[in-house]
């Protein structure tokens, strides 16, 4: 792993879709002055991500807001797929960022090889608590698991 607790979040361009257009935002700007739970997933619409991981955060969004945390999901997909995933999941209140080229995932040191499944390089499943751009905790799942990065687990930490 490249990043550690108490490190400053690496500066990278984050891609989001705004009014149908791809917008690049510096991660420094994106995380500055905010308390965020960043959740990394292997891909939008993949079974565990779509049917278990994201729904747990959707169900608990008000609990995170009550603690002044916002939720951001990151997937190694293009911004159009990530936006479609958000809309199909009715993930109101959860921000989605696309890491289509796996640049941010690589910078974080959280890349996994999904080529055995035809997925190429993807993001490991993780949850990271970020406070004003500083990484306060990071929980990386073992392949196939979805426990320590769950909404319930992260709520218990904050």
Q: Can you walk through the features of this model?
A:
It is a single chain. The protein is α/β, with parallel strands linked by helices and 158 residues long. The protein has one domain: Glutaredoxin (3-Layer(aba) Sandwich), CATH 3.40.30.10. Helices cover 30% and strands 31% of the residues. It has a 5-stranded mixed β-sheet. A two-stranded antiparallel ribbon has the order 1-2. A two-stranded antiparallel ribbon has the order 6-7. The longest helix has 13 residues.
| Helix segment tally | 6
Would you count the extended β strands for me?
9
Q: What's the name of the CATH homologous superfamily?
A: Glutaredoxin
Mean pLDDT: 90
Helical content band = 25-40%
Across the major sheet, the strand order is: 5-4-3-8-9
Major sheet attributes: 5 strands, mixed
CATH class: Alpha Beta
Overall structural class, as computed from helix and strand content, comes to alpha/beta
- What is the approximate shape? globular
Instruction: State the order of secondary-structure elements, H for helix, E for strand.
Output: EEHEHHEHEHEEEEH
> How many structural domains does the protein architecture include?
1
Strand content bin: 25-35%
**Distance N to C terminus:** 23 Å
CATH architecture title: 3-Layer(aba) Sandwich
CATH third-tier fold name? Glutaredoxin
What is the alpha-carbon Rg in Å?
14 Å
């Amino acid at each position: 792993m490249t990043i550690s607790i108490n490190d400053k979040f690496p500066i990278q361009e984050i891609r989001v879709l705004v009014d149908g257009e791809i917008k690049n935002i510096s991660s420094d700007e994106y995380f500055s002055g905010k308390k965020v739970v960043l959740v990394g997933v292997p891909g939008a619409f993949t079974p565990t991500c779509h049917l278990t991981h994201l729904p747990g955060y959707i169900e608990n969004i008000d609990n995170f807001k009550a603690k002044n945390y916002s939720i951001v999901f990151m997937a190694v997909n293009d911004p159009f797929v990530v936006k479609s995933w958000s809309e199909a999941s009715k993930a109101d209140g959860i921000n989605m960022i696309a890491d289509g080229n796996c640049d941010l995932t690589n910078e974080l040191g959280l890349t996994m090889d999904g080529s055995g499944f035809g997925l190429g390089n993807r993001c490991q499943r993780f949850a990271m608590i970020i406070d004003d751009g500083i990484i306060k905790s990071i929980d990386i799942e073992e392949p196939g698991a979805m426990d320590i990065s769950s909404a319930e687990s992260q709520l218990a930490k904050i």
